[in-house]
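Researcher: Let's walk through a ligand-bound prediction step by step. First, I give you the protein sequence. Second, the SMILES string for S-adenosylmethionine. Third, you return the three-dimensional complex as structure tokens. Ready?
Model: Ready.
Researcher: Here are steps one and two:
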Amino acid sequence: MLARDWYYTQRRRLGLDSAVASIYDRHDDSDERARAALTMLGVQRGWRVADIGCGNGVLACEAALMGAEVDAIDISPAMLALANIYARDRKAVIRTQPAGLLSFAYEPNSYDLIVSEFTLHHLPDFWKAVALARIFAALKPGANFYLRDIVFVSMPDGIERDIDQWAEFTIKNHDFQREGVVAHMRDEYSTFGWVIERMLTDIGFTLESVDYHAPLHGTYLLRKPKPGQQS
Ligand SMILES: C[S@@+](CC[C@H](N)C(=O)[O-])C[C@H]1O[C@@H](n2cnc3c(N)ncnc32)[C@H](O)[C@@H]1O
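Model: Step three, the predicted complex:
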């Protein structure tokens, strides 16, 4: 299937990856935030966990330190190199996989938890749905998917205000330059929250909670229903 010539080329922006890696190679409180999220998600020793678009591997390593067996998946070799260095420093055992949302290898019904943070927007909407269906297939029935991304909360006629607020917020709070905001809007594929919600529920996920917060941040907690349970 992956050899089909119409399949989306996830590596099209890979030329930027070492620049992106340098942005993420810095110290902050992301380990504490990852630990809090994983605790909220109930991670247990022996769980099989995947972080897709794992970036510098902070969340993957925290899950491993909590006793999970972790697949740290990212399309960018530069990011996985950082993840491996971080894992070595933290003495965490993770299994890195250089693959994307559309190509990661999985056994059906095998993961206890999948996390993907700020990565889905790299795919156009059609391919987002394909990726979400793969994640659904990879999860055990009853298991959770924790999705976070940059999404628009407004209706299409409100995007200018959304983008202005988001630019102001990220430049002030996240050390981003205006060019980063412009490049995101111009070259990446953030979409509306209602589009993401519809994709998720049509695929079969149960939406356990949705939180739209800060300008343009969406956090979704989803469950793959067990057979006989309603989605
Ligand atoms: C904005 S970073 C987020 C990294 C990390 N999850 C975090 O929240 O800090 C996006 C990551 O997604 C990766 N990525 C881009 N396209 C991808 C794809 N199609 N599949 C998997 N990872 C992808 C990038 O290499 C990068 O590491």
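Researcher: And what stands out?
Model: Residues 10, 17, 52-55, 74-76, 79, 100-101, 117-119, 122-123 surround S-adenosylmethionine (CB under 6 Å). The first helix runs from residue 17 to 24.
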